[in-house]
Amino acid sequence: IYNNAQCCISEELGIVGVDCEAPSTTPSDATGLRSICAAAGKVPRCCAVPIAGQDVLCTNA
């Protein structure tokens, strides 16, 4: 269910990603996602498919 890698500014209520975007490059693993997001000043999240343009059901990567 959490197959949508995202880099987010923050997370609300532990489940809704705020100002999320796909990583600038495709990560090969969670460590890669963390590095890519950190370089952009964001935090890595794995989210379910966005609903109405909002990333919901997110978890730490």
Automatic annotation (TrEMBL):
It holds the Pfam family Hydrophobin_2. Signal peptide: none annotated. Keywords: Disulfide bond. GO terms for cellular component: extracellular region. Belongs to the cerato-ulmin hydrophobin family. PANTHER family: HYDROPHOBIN. This is Hydrophobin. It comes from Aspergillus aculeatus (strain ATCC 16872 / CBS 172.66 / WB 5094). The lineage of its organism: Eukaryota, Fungi, Dikarya, Ascomycota, Pezizomycotina.
